[in-house]
């Protein structure tokens, strides 16, 4: 089992299921196609766990260093003798960790959807798209080279598009899917240019060459510079731009809240746990290049992460749609991960930030998927997305309440839940790197606790709302994933990540820095307390506070008018001053030239058509005149 | 009986007759008159054949027989053409070549 | 001027004048009659060339057959007093130019060319010879074209009957009115 050849099936099985359900799904019964997809993903999950077991505990840990294992790598496109694109499977600590995350959350979502999506039109379509997503996400994380990653990167974008637009009869869903696709595609343009620049500079796509700290790729990277930064730095910034788009960092965050129009389990899987962290994964994958060759780009990563986390946390406090709160919370938490990568060093204990980022990615995937699935259960019970329609649900949904509480405690960083450990590592890494970033993250930790418990208190405490039907607990297909994920969210903090997932593959010792941890727990508690006071004790308080900070509240409620700014820039500036002249040019000059050609041809043809009159006598006339001329020529001119 | 008349006289006469036929063929609109022009053309060819046969190769019979065949062909052609013309007239109530045009375009 | 020449000039002038009248006359029946004159004069030329048999064929077949056929069809298709519209001057001009140019070239070429006759003895073309040649093979044997011509005549006869026969319901008068 240590040759890892079976890892091929991890992403072949979802692909085959996608093909099967996509082509023949409508012939199968909905329930059977759902069970088929779930069973296939169950197999994938088992394989992933086997892979992880053998990678972490049997093979790779020789001499305490986790090697990169290339299971296979076959040429896919051959450009030149030195440049070719390969497809393969690369196992290293982060890709194996991602396999665990993706397969676990995917499996939970598959099971959950059996209940949540029951009776929906297009059930089998839903499962085929989920399989497509699983396939492409697996392909993304095990990519052996940056181009393979890009291909699968686009494939996850497509599956995200398809799943956001699952309810294609809803205009909002269609709009949201288009928005998500266009925004991320726009960012991916940067990614592609970055890849081309990088590969031009280093003559390789391969991660094993690119990210080797002693390798030629990094050593050759300095040299040509542009606007004061080296070309490598620029290319890494452009690559990061792709990550910004996919991970919904500022300023490309606008698609993620709208993406909540998709089915809730999809939000849990794609827009909370797996796809949106692809940007983080990308930076982690390219981390040695960032650290050794493009420190300026890494600084940008850190600052964008910090800003996004603060920015999204503030907006999250004002949102009223339960899924949107969670969406902004996701942006905020991914900001944490980006920040952790940005402040990280390389190797040993210096790589604390890297480890913390991956750790947080793992724990976040668990508790955020849990939060979304809980939200799904709540929406399922009350048939509304809005917090105003919820309240006092504790007694109706006891199980959901308990799991939601665990997730809230985990995200707020209360020990001993998982979020505490990962967040503490991030704060520690930030503290050693840059105090400003550190204090921003402290503040964000408090705000996070506040808005999560604002959600919790409004939904589960408070007085009952007027419900059409009495809310009831979800069926077991939905509650079992909740329990499993809640267990993971509660206890995954005890996984010794510093022994398993590190920047250079070497294990190192960490300990909780109590000087940082205790204040952060205190801040989180303060946040929870504030939420308790505002939403349980004194429900009139929020209204009064809003009336005091009317303008800033309005600003945050409207998401700082970022969407409006985009609309202004696109509609008022780009469309009017660039697109319209281009369209005019296209319509009048390009089309005009074509039309002119056509008209000239037509006019000439009309004239020439006279000769083709179909009148026998005209033909005879031409024939005879021609014969006479021919005779003249032959007799007199050619003698 | 042709003593004293040069060959070229016959040929010139045939040429004039031929191009008169051509002129008629080009200008006439009525199908029957076109047919008549064609008869003129055929006749001029016949005259050519016979004159050349008589003057240049009097011991041979090719010109003679080809004239004979041409007359036969002309008879056949006239028969078919007139059948066609009558049929056309029945359908279109006209035998003007320019008006018979439903198969064009 | 010998009698031969006189006869030739007579026939030639009849042919030329009536040819031109045939193609220019605006009354169709008259054109047919002019054509008859042309054909009869052509028969006269055949006599002059000493092809009596062919002249007879010309008279019976052309003058007696084809022209009668033409006159019949004229009577069937046109009113007797129908007068054609004059030809467009443009069409007439260009056609005349083409015809005259062609005639000129031909005539000039004929006059330029020196014809060389053989010295072989002339052969009398009598009915016996014609009949034998038509039915024999080898040199002076024309059985193959004779057979081809007979098949052609048969085909033409069948075709003429089929075409001129009043067709099925498609050629009824109600149908023809659609084309007008």
Short description:
With 105 residues, chain B is an all-alpha fold. Chain B has three helices and no strands. Helix content of chain B is 74%, strand content 0%.
Explain what you see.
The complex is a heterotrimer of chains A (639), B (105) and C (180). With 639 residues, chain A is mainly alpha-helical. Helix content of chain A is 71%, strand content 3%. Chain A has 26 helices and four strands. Chain A has helices spanning 7-24, 30-59, 93-116, 123-141, 146-164, 171-202, 207-210, 216-219, 231-246, 255-258, 264-273, 278-285, 287-293, 295-316, 322-342, 352-382, 398-412, 418-433, 435-460, 476-491, 497-500, 514-537, 541-548, 550-557, 562-609, 616-637, and strands at 69-78, 84-91, 225-226, 229-230. In chain A, a hairpin with a 5-residue loop joins β1 (69-78) and β2 (84-91). The radius of gyration of chain A is 30 Å and the shape is globular. The N and C termini of chain A lie far apart (95 Å). The model of chain A has no long low-confidence stretch (mean pLDDT 85). By secondary structure, chain B is mainly α. Chain B has one domain (30-105). Chain B has three helices and no strands. Chain B has helices at 7-27, 31-56, 62-92. Chain C has three domains: 1-83, Four Helix Bundle (Hemerythrin (Met), subunit A), CATH 1.20.120.1200; 88-114; 128-169. Chain C has 180 residues and is mostly helical. Chain C starts with a helix and ends with a helix. Chains in contact: A-B, A-C, B-C. Chains A and C meet through α26 of A and α4 of C.
Q: What integer value in Å does the Rg of chain B equal?
A: 17 Å
Structural class of chain B: mainly alpha
Number of strands of chain A: 4
N-C termini distance of chain B: 55 Å
What fraction of the residues of chain A are assigned to beta strands by DSSP? under 5%
End-to-end C-alpha gap of chain A: 95 Å
Number of domains of chain B: 1
Total helix count of chain B? 3
Computed over alpha carbons, the radius of gyration of chain A is 30 Å
Count of DSSP helices of chain A?
A: 26
Average pLDDT score of chain B: 87
Major sheet details of chain A? 2 strands, antiparallel
Task: Kindly state the percentage of residues in helix of chain B.
Answer: over 70%
């Amino acid at each position: 089992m240590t040759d890892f050849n079976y890892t091929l099936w991890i992403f072949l099985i979802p692909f085959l299921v996608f093909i099967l359900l996509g082509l023949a799904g409508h012939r199968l019964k909905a329930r059977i196609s759902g069970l088929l997809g779930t069973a296939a993903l169950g197999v994938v999950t088992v394989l992933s766990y086997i892979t992880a077991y053998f990678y972490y505990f049997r093979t790779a840990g020789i001499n305490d260093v986790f090697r990169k294992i290339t299971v296979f790598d076959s040429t896919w496109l051959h450009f030149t003798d030195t440049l070719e694109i390969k497809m393969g499977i690369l196992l290293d600590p982060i890709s194996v960790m991602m396999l665990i995350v993706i397969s676990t959350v995917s499996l939970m979502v598959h099971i959950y959807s059996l209940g949540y999506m029951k009776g929906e039109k297009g059930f089998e379509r839903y499962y085929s798209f989920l399989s497509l997503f699983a396939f492409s996400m697996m392909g993304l994380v095990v990519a052996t080279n940056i181009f393979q990653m890009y291909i699968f990167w686009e494939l996850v974008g497509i599956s995200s598009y398809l799943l956001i637009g699952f309810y294609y009869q809803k205009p909002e869903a269609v709009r949201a899917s288009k928005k998500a696709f266009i925004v991320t595609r726009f960012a991916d343009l940067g990614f592609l240019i970055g890849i081309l620049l990088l590969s031009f500079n280093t003559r390789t796509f391969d991660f094993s060459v690119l990210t080797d700290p002693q390798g030629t790729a990094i050593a050759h990277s300095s040299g040509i510079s542009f606007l004061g930064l080296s070309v490598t730095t620029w290319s890494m910034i452009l690559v990061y731009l792709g990550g910004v788009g996919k991970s919904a960092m500022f300023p490309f965050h606008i698609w993620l809240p709208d993406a909540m129009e998709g089915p809730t389990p999809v939000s849990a899987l794609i827009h909370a746990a797996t796809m949106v962290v692809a940007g983080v994964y990308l930076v982690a994958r390219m981390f040695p290049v960032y650290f050794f060759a493009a420190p300026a780009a890494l600084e940008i990563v850190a600052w964008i992460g910090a800003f996004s986390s603060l920015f999204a946390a503030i907006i999250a406090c004002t949102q009223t749609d339960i899924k949107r709160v969670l969406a902004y919370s996701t942006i905020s938490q991914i900001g944490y991960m980006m920040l952790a990568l940005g402040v990280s060093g390389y190797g040993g204990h210096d790589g604390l930030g890297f480890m913390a980022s991956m750790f947080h990615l793992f724990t976040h995937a668990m508790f955020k998927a849990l939060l979304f699935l809980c939200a799904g259960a709540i929406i399922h019970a009350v048939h509304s997305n809005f917090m105003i329609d919820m309240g006092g649900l504790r007694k109706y949904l006891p199980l959901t309440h308990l799991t939601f509480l665990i997730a809230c405690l985990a995200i707020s960083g209360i020990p001993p839940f998982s979020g505490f450990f990962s967040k503490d590592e991030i704060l520690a890494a930030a503290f050693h790197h840059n105090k400003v970033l550190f204090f921003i993250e402290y503040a964000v930790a408090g705000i996070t606790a506040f808005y999560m418990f604002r959600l919790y208190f409004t939904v589960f405490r408070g007085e009952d709302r007027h419900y059409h039907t009495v809310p009831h607990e979800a069926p077991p297909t939905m509650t079992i994933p909740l329990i499993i994920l809640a267990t993971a969210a509660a206890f995954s903090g005890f996984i010794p990540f510093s022994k398993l997932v590190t920047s250079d593959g070497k294990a190192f010792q960490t300990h909780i820095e109590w000087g940082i941890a205790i204040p952060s727990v205190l801040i989180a508690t303060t946040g929870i307390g504030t939420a308790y006071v505002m939403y349980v004790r004194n429900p009139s308080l929020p209204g009064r506070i809003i009336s005091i900070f009317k303008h800033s509240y309005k600003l945050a409620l409207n998401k700082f008018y970022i969407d409006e700014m985009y609309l202004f820039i696109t509609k008022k500036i780009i469309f009017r001053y660039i697109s319209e002249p281009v369209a005019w040019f296209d319509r009048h000059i390009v089309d005009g030239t074509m039309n002119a050609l056509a008209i000239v041809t037509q006019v000439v043809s009309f004239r020439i058509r006279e000769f083709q009159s179909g009148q026998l006598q005209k033909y005879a006339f031409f024939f005879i005149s021609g014969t006479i001329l021919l005779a003249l020529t032959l007799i007199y001119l050619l003698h | 009986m042709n003593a004293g008349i040069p060959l070229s006289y016959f040929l010139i006469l045939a040429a004039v007759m031929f191009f008169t036929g051509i002129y008629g063929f080009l200008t006439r609109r009525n199908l029957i008159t076109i047919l008549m022009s064609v008869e003129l053309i055929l006749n001029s060819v016949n005259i050519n054949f016979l004159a050349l046969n008589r003057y240049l190769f009097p011991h041979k019979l090719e010109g003679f027989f080809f004239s004979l065949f041409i007359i036969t062909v002309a008879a056949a052609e006239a028969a078919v053409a007139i059948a066609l013309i009558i049929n056309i007239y029945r359908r279109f109530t006209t035998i003007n070549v320019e008006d018979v045009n439903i198969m064009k375009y | 001027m010998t009698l031969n020449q006189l006869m030739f000039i007579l026939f030639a002038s009849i042919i030329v004048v009536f040819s031109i009248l045939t193609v220019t006359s605006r009354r169709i029946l008259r054109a047919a009659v002019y054509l008859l004159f042309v054909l009869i004069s052509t028969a006269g030329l055949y006599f002059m060339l000493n092809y009596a048999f062919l002249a007879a064929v010309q008279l019976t077949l052309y003058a007696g057959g084809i022209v009668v056929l033409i006159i019949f069809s004229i009577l069937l298709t046109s009113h007797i007093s129908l007068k054609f519209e004059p030809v467009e001057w443009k069409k007439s001009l260009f056609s005349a130019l083409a015809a005259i140019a062609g005639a000129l070239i031909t005539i000039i070429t004929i006059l330029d060319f020196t014809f060389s006759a053989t010295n072989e003895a002339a052969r009398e073309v009598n009915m016996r010879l014609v009949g034998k040649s038509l039915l024999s093979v080898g040199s002076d044997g024309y059985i193959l074209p004779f057979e081809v011509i007979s098949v052609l005549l048969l085909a033409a006869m069948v075709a003429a009957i089929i075409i001129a026969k009043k067709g099925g319901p498609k050629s009824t008068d109600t149908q023809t009115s659609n084309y007008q």
